[in-house]
Amino acid sequence: AQSVTQLGSHVSVSEGALVLLRCNYSSSVPPYLFWYVQYPNQGLQLLLKYTSAATLVKGINGFEAEFKKSETSFHLTKPSAHMSDAAEYFCAVRSNFGNEKLTFGTGTRLTIIP
Amino acid sequence: GAGVSQTPSNKVTEKGKYVELRCDPISGHTALYWYRQSLGQGPEFLIYFQGTGAADDSGLPNDRFFAVRPEGSVSTLKIQRTERGDSAVYLCASSRGVAGAKDTQYFGPGTRLTVL
Q1: Cα angle value B48/A52/A22 (rounded, 5°)
Q2: pLDDT tens, A10-22?
Q3: Does A43 sit within 8 Å of B109, measured CB to CB?
Q4: Are B11 and B114 in contact, with CB atoms under 8 Å apart?
Q5: CA nearest to B103 within chain A
Q6: Is A51 near chain B, with CB under 8 Å?
Q7: Residues of chain A contacting B110 with CB distance shorter than 8 Å
Q8: Positive or negative, the Cα torsion across A57, A27, A101, A43?
């Protein structure tokens, strides 16, 4: 069985500060890992994904994440927060054995303080 | 259309009623997924179609829930005898259906179902 744990249901950072959203995964097989963002009243949008190529993955809007097998982590970072980054962020895991379901974490709501 | 669309955007119904939620996937996408997102939670998988057939329906909570995709494009999620606990946002996603890393799921805006 696969699962992800997102530490911190709410994170607040000042505009211009570093954003760090934590995600740890559990998987019996090498996984694919994803970060999605959800703006109010909108669907989920893919930020980035890890697919066993490079361990440091760059995504849209200046976000990146690093896959660390030894720590079973896939934390999301952005060097400088913008007001437009305020949203809910979800980490998800999927088996690498084909077109299968995504298993999501419970989400982290990011608030940007002006 | 450019993205996944879902109708209606909001549905309010009374306990015990029947509801249908529709999903139009991205044109050409053979894989279609339904998820349910309860308040304060991440999306939870319900069912996955590859073409017309349900490849994995392990997430359907009980036999009141059923989904179809008769022509391999549009899908309908059907809920019978709705209960207050069914209130949630129902999300649909589609993907190209190719094996491996290239397959990305694209999500629709969801249908917010409220059961009174």
Answers
A1: 80
A2: 999 999 999 999 9
A3: yes
A4: yes
A5: A99
A6: yes
A7: 43
A8: negative
